[in-house]
Amino acid sequence: MDLKIFDTLLEPTFVLDQEGRVRYCNEPAALICDQSVRKLMRSRPYIKELFRFTENIEALNDITQVQDASPYQETSFEMDGGKTGRVQLTLQPLPPDPEDGSPRWLVFFRDVTLEETLQRKYRAELEKKEHVIQALEEAQKKLEDYSRNLEKMVAERTAQLSAINSQMKALLDSLGQGFLIFDRQGRCLEIASKACEHIFETDPRGKSIHEVLRQSENETKAFQRWMATAFAEMLPFEDLAPLAPPKYAHSGYRSIDLGYFPLRTEGGAIEGLVLVGTDVTDLVRAQKQAELDRAQSKMVLELVKNRRQVLGFIREAEAIIGEIHEQLEAPEPAYDVTFRALHTLKGGAASFSVQDLVDRIHEGEEILGHWHESPSAENLSPLHRQVGLIDESFRQFLANTDAILGSRGEAGGATREVRIEELRKFYDGLKTPVMRTRFFEGFLTEKSAQVFAHFNDTVQSAASQLGKVVLPLSIDTPDFAFWPEPYQRLIASLVHAFRNAVDHGIETPDVREQRGKNPAGRISLTLEKNGERLLLRIQDDGNGIDPSKIRDRLAKKGFDTSVESDAQVIQHVFDSEFSTRDQVTALSGRGVGMDAIKHTANELGGRAWVTSVPGQGTACMVDVPWLTDVPAFLKVA
Questions:
Q1: What is the helix (H) or strand (E) element at residue 502, kind and residue range?
Q2: 163 to each of 1, 14, 345, 373, how far by Cα in Å?
Q3: Side-chain half-sphere of 363: how many Cα atoms within 13 Å?
Q4: Burial, 268: exposed, middle or buried (Cβ in 10 Å; 0-12, 13-18, 19+)?
């Protein structure tokens, strides 16, 4: 038996003699020992000297007594250099050495401490050692060619291949990953690990890869285009691999990561693709729980730090949720209105790290989008259920708010609840303009630094998700005082402008350095009163808007922009469902955010627009009436 077959394995493998000395090891085994294969093969150390196991490994006490494969035994170990780890290992006898007839034993390690490091190494080794699998197929073809005249040779060779295949299958089945190979027609070959039945919920052998991955008609067409590009090698495979489906949609809601590796001929051409499925459910759950814990802690800080803004968000959220319910009670909800409401509510929740509410609203957006593509009562029913879950999450947030800040934030201090009717009567009783001005400035106005400070968390959170660096939000007019209550819906919608500035505007640090910019981007907010108008300006120093990209995107939708100037073209960023993103993420891609800003500005009797200089940055401008009519607002309230 050629020990080189073990070079293709993705787990540490040793072959021992009857004294327990190492006669062979593969690259993963050398890696776990922090030595080279050559050094281990030359020194031939005792396995029990290499590893000091914390548990008694009976099979290693007298290796000559091991006649069958031993069950996996998990144990910790320590090495001379101080390295520690934990592994699962098994022993089984191998055929005697064909050269001297000496007995040999296989020791198979499953390292449970260096999985990520080894997987990267395994993938590299898989690409290097793919010729082993190729050799099996070529050998089988040669046997068929010589079958008429060399029946005896074929029989002997077939027996050898059968033994190798059995051993290979046993080794593959011992791995926890789903391992299969498919050709350029998408047909899965007969080589597959037992774990595929758990990972992919089927035995893939002989089936179409599209059937194995349970792809829809559109997904199948997209994957076929990717396969054609990959096998034709129009681009380097390492650049194409990330474009293939990264996940398998498991019916049991397991999280399955997919990896793709090429099998090449001796001439270097790709003749097959290896698909490796890894169940990362436990890891994903742990990461999700950690994210929720961090978000919960951050939310508590946000509630305490931004008490007034949180209470404003609660009032605005209640109004938005009521608007969503009104839409759902209609025979057919208005898609634009409902989506705008959900997206604005999600942006506000994200500003205060209400992660559970953010997640449920994001799922609601997905469901609403599906209904928009295929309107039917059947597709609308899940949206009703999801809005119920959004209600539930919001009520839990209110309970958390009351627990931290008291009932609607009024715990502690000498406070009194004043009815709107009483406030109106008091204002009407103020006889002179001076008294009314003092009332307005003393009780109703707030400084912009207080009103908009919480958006810095929005900016920093988006930057962290995107791997970017942004300086703290600069409020260039911190002492500018205005009455924020009539503008609450507009202020809430501005979360989209800040997130867009990070997502679409600010470049990554390395790109900014190449352009001679500070690696950290800058986003600023300016407010000013111009006559009886209030002007807000959100400015970034990032990419700017490329009018040609806007034109290309609109052309694909059938819009002719040939008569529009660049300044006019870039205003289409406010169009409903317009986005330059090809994929939807938690931050962008739906084309709803800027539309929400324009809509709320229009409701106030104002307007919104953008100005941009490519390579230098973008400014989102909002011009609305300067509101000071207290009785009119109180009447509406």
A1: none
A2: 9, 20, 63, 54
A3: 15
A4: exposed
Listed by start position, the domains of the chain span 3-116, 131-282, 295-417, 428-631
Largest CA distance in the chain: 117
What CATH architecture does domain 295-417 belong to? Up-down Bundle (1.20)
pLDDT, one tens digit per residue, over 68-95 is 988 989 999 998 888 888 889 999 999 9
Euclidean distance between CA atoms 129 and 302, whole angstroms: 53
Cα–Cα distance, 141 to 144 (Å, whole number): 5
> Cα(first)–Cα(last) distance of the chain, in Å?
85
CA angle 378, 371, 381 (to 5 degrees): 35
Topology at the third CATH level for domain 131-282: Beta-Lactamase (3.30.450)
Cα angle, residue 629 at apex, residues 628 and 631 outer, rounded to 5°: 140
Confidence bin at 328 (pLDDT 50/70/90): confident
Closest CA to 123 of 258, 18, 225, 218: 258
Judge whether 295-417 and 428-631 match in fold. no
pLDDT of residue 159: 58
Strand order in the sheet with 523-530: 474-475, 523-530, 533-540, 617-625, 607-613
Dist CA 300 CA 397 (whole Å): 11
Could you tell me which residues come within 8 angstroms of residue 538 by beta carbon, excluding any fewer than 6 positions away?
494, 497, 498, 501, 523, 524, 525, 619, 620
CB 436 within 8 A of CB 427: yes
Whole-number pLDDT of residue 541: 95
Q: Distance between CA atoms of 360 and 349, rounded to whole angstroms?
A: 11
Q: Which two tokens stand for residue 573?
A: 């960023």
Given CA atoms 219, 224, 225, 227 in this order, what sign does their dihedral have?
positive
The CATH number given to 3-116 is 3.30.450.20
Coil vs helix vs strand at 517: coil
Q: What is the pLDDT of residues 427-452, one digit of tens each?
A: 667 767 777 677 767 677 889 998 99
Q: Are 302 and 454 a contacting pair, CB within 8 Å?
A: yes
Q: Is 623 exposed, middle or buried (0-12, 13-18, 19+ CB in 10 A)?
A: middle
Q: Give the fold, CATH level 3, of 428-631.
A: Heat Shock Protein 90 (3.30.565)
Parallel/antiparallel/unpaired status of strands 474-475 and 523-530: parallel
Check if the beta carbon of residue 487 is closer than 8 Å to that of residue 604. yes
Confidence category of residue 481, pLDDT binned at 50, 70, 90: very high
Burial (CB < 10 A; 0-12, 13-18, 19+), residue 326, is: middle
Among 8, 541, 543, 85, smallest CA distance to 274 is for 8
- Torsion sign, CA atoms 67, 68, 69, 73: negative
Question: Percent helix, strand and coil across the chain, each rounded to 5?
Answer: 50, 20, 30
Lowest mean pLDDT among 89-103, 115-129, 341-355, 525-539: 115-129
Q: With beta carbons less than 8 A apart as the criterion, state whether 123 and 262 touch.
A: no
Locus of tokens 């009717």: 421
